[in-house]
């Protein structure tokens, strides 16, 4: 929404950070899942969270060009 107001480098870092955060969360949740001892409700919620964060990371990776490319051509606020 405001990607065009951010410096391109900062935008790329934000996207990279979000992908990293999603993957870290999924890794932690998969480790928790592997330990077992989850109720069916906990297993459902954990699986849902994993699916959402994997999808989020994948979407950002596949579509980041839509906002990064725009940021490259946006007028600089220092001009």
Structure notes:
With 79 residues, the chain is mostly helical. Helix content is 78%, strand content 0%. It has two helices and no strands. Helix 1 packs antiparallel against helix 2. The longest helix is centred in the last third of the chain and has 34 residues. The mean pLDDT is 88.
Chain-wise SSE layout:
Blueprint: H1 8-35, H2 40-73
Helix pairs in contact: 1-2
* Shape descriptor: elongated
Percent of residues in β-strands: under 5%
Measured between the Cα atoms of the first and last residue, the distance is: 21 Å
| CA-based gyration radius | 17 Å
* Largest sheet composition: none
Low-confidence sequence ranges: none
Determine the fraction of residues in helical runs and give it as a percent range: over 70%
Structural class: mainly alpha
Mean pLDDT: 88
N-to-C SSE string, H for helix and E for strand = HH
The number of helical segments is 2
Number of strands: 0
């Amino acid at each position: 929404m405001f990607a065009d107001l951010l410096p391109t480098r900062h935008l790329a870092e934000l996207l990279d950070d979000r992908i990293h955060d999603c993957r870290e969360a999924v890794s932690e949740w998969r480790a928790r899942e592997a330990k077992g001892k989850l109720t069916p409700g906990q297993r459902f919620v954990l699986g849902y969270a994993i699916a959402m964060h994997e999808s989020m990371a994948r979407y950002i990776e596949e579509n980041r060009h839509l906002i990064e490319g725009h940021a490259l051509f946006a007028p600089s606020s220092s001009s």
